[in-house]
Amino acid sequence: MRWSIAIRRVLSVVGFALLFLPVQVSAEETVCIQCHSGQEGRLKAPVEQWRNSVHAANGISCNDCHGGDPTDFTMAMSPDRGFVGVPEYDEVPEFCGHCHLGVKEDYLGSAHGKALESGGPQCVLCHGSHGIQLASIKLINKESCTRCHGYERAIKVKQAISSTEATLTSLEESVASLHRLGFDMKRMKENLFAQRNAFRQIFHTVELDKIKRQKVKFDKELAVIQGQVNTYEAEISQRKLVGGGVALLLLLGGGIALLIRRSYHKEE
Amino acid sequence: MKLQKDAMDWLDSRLGVRELLYNNLNGYLLPRNINIWYTLGAILMALLGLQFLTGILLLIFYVPDTEKAFASVTMIMNEVPYGWLIRYLHVVASNLIVAFLFLHMFSVLFMGSYKRPRELTWLSGFVLFNMGLVFCLTGYLLPWSQLSFWATTVATDAAGAIPVVGDFLVEFLRGGPSVGAATLGRFFALHVMALPMAFLGLLGFHLFCVRRVGISSAPFGDQYQPTELTRSFTHDEHLDGVPFHPNYTIKEISMVFFALAALVVITFFVPWLFIPPEALVPANPFVTPEHIKPEWYFLWTYQVLKIFPSKLLGLSAQAAVMGLMAILPFLDLGPERRPAKRPIFVTIYLLGIWV
């Protein structure tokens, strides 16, 4: 009898302990990633670079640029399934321009684009390829630009756009944070996205006067968005003030109730 | 004052209200060593009341339609006056309720309060705990977000591992081969009608058991001695105890205030705490989120499924654990409730929490 009780107890607690065992989870991947992960050298390198890229973060995978069938090992690299492989140097703007249409237009019209056939810069020279990161003003830097020409003009472009870029970045952070709090930011986010794309597009023209003229227009648009963001942020501050007050009152009420309880203790 | 007295006299002459109130409030004596863990029931009842209230308010604007559900929740959050507050209180309180349910269950386990003659109190409480989890599962789907859709897909998919009836069960739970309008319809009906009614009924039974058998003494201190049980029913009297009202109710009120303060702080300062980013994106059956993970209170089921080589084994292990927990008072028959005298149980109990 004593043994059976002991066994029952052990069974009960072992079962109970099972509740707390740890695990790991893995994400599903395309056949491109699965196959290239097992390769060596330059065939493997793009996988890790891509994993940390802005493309990966937004669900843009190998097949979105290189074509092919990401679900079929045997046909993954078949031209019949749209596989285009690695583009030639001067094909890169067309390659990236499948998605980045506006930027492609401005780039092709710029001094950079016009110099493409004679070995001028193209997208991946500044942005990189598989490990591509969210474009930022940091891409315009002395080290990068002086590979081909002087930095004097580039720094002027950078100075002209830096304040607008900073506003854009700050607004994007504010919008993301407001969205996280449950505010419906869809329209504002779309508007900001459109503004950012249009703004980034113009400085691919690398024409300083044009950039300065357009910047004024963008700054006005962004000021309107900033006004709306400020309204939301003021509301959040007000909410916190009220919430903090109510929480304090509740704590005070709880404290008073405990003091009353203590007075009963003395009577008991 | 006179009107109140007249009303009371009128009720008393017909229903004996004064005697009823005295027997259940001032005349109802609780053990002197009753501690803070005993207030969890009151906290849970207060939060449940709030859930009913906020749930009814949300129902006014929520539309249980796959095309409109997400938009209606967005509207509640952005256009309905104080809609954001009502929804956040509902979401945060649901998580706090699960946390307090866990604490309530763990404290009962630690103090051995589930033991005879309180088997039915434990069993009804354990079923209520599981119903609370089902409440959360069904409520999770209602906003029809990416998180709702995929968490429900994963949760209902698990039933498919059961041999023979697995596929039927999955289809029964979803109302079709995949999560869709039929799933939303049945989860909505469960969440706002079937579960609340069943929950209230069982809660009534749970409270009846608590009152009828009497509150158990905390198994601590020199005065506590395990009692041998008689075959016939006896109410656990505490003749030298303290009155339930006002001596203990005031303690419960203070704890309820503190719990509500925690609820308010989370609601106003970190409302996103229990809302992952995927919950802010409308459901899309064609895009699987990269990092889909169940709510914190379902992580243990998820973990158990992952450590076993097959889902069936994982589900069986869970069923075994839950089954054991449910019938624990029928297995653990010894009268000893002092944790210091139950080293095996307490060691594994603490190990479990630590792991």
Throw out a few tags for this protein.
heterodimer, A: 268 residues, mainly alpha, B: 355 residues, Cytochrome Bc1 Complex, Chain C, two-stranded antiparallel sheet, 14 helices, 64% helix
Biggest interface reads:
A-B, 48 and 62 residues
State the total count of DSSP E strands of chain A: 0
Distance between the termini of chain B: 58 Å
H/E series of chain A:
HHHHHHHHHHHHH
Largest sheet of chain A: none
Number of helices of chain B: 14
Might you state the CATH topology name of chain B?
A: Cytochrome Bc1 Complex, Chain C
Poorly predicted regions of chain B are none
Q: Helix and strand succession of chain B?
A: HHEHHHHHHHEHHHHH
What's the helical proportion of residues of chain B?
55-70%
Radius of gyration of chain A equals 29 Å
- Oligomeric composition of the shown chains: heterodimer
Description:
The complex is a heterodimer of chains A (268) and B (355). Chain A has a domain at 150-268. Chain A has 13 helices and no strands. Chain A has helices spanning 2-17, 31-37, 41-51, 54-57, 62-66, 92-97, 101-109, 111-114, 123-127, 142-145, 152-180, 186-202, 208-267. In chain A, α11 runs parallel beside α13 (208-267) and α12 packs antiparallel against α13. Chain A is extended. Chain B has one domain (34-218, 240-354): Cytochrome Bc1 Complex, Chain C, CATH 1.20.810.10. Chain B has helices at 2-15, 17-24, 40-61, 69-78, 83-110, 119-141, 146-157, 166-174, 181-213, 244-269, 299-307, 311-326, 328-331, 343-354; strands spanning 29-30, 242-243. The longest helix of chain B is centred in the middle third of the chain and has 33 residues, at 181-213. At the A-B interface, α1 and α13 of A face α4, α5, α10, α11 and α12 of B.
